Structure formats: C-alpha cells, structure tokens
Predict the 3D structure of the following.
Amino acid sequence: MEYREVLAFYLEKQKVSVAELARRISSPRSTIYALLGGRAKEPTLGTAKAIADALGVTLQEMADMVFADEAEIEDSVTAKGTEGEFDGI
C-alpha cells in the first residue's frame, strides 16, 4: 500500500480535512495534496511523524499499513469489525 493511500485512509477515518491537517502540522496544503496525489512519494521522517501525531495514530501504525500486504490489512479490518458476530456458531 502506498503512503498516499494510508494518508487518505486516516484522513477519512479521523474525519480530518486537508486544510485542517495542514494547519495542525504547520505546513502548506500543497504539501498534503502532493502526498495524496502521488507527486511526493513519501514525506520526510519529521513530516510523517507530525502527520501521524496530528491524526492521533503512531508513526508505526502508519508504517505498518504502508509495508503490510493488502490481504493482511483486509483481514485486520475485518477482524476488528466483526468481533462478537460469530458467537454461538
């Protein structure tokens, strides 16, 4: 999974706009749009940390999604969303 996809996922999950994220990390919106649009492949370590902090996740969580196999991510999301659904089967 590419960083831009992970960033988009967390922006949507946390309901944070590009403008709000840019404000939180004191960076121009163009930086966030460049990351989301793929014009910038990956942020610097400092920017990645600031983004993670601003979105309320750890840098490790974001990195795990970037480097994880997509099947692992789907399994993880599915497992978290279905806890207790299969009780009694």
User: Anything to note?
Assistant: The first helix runs from residue 3 to 14.
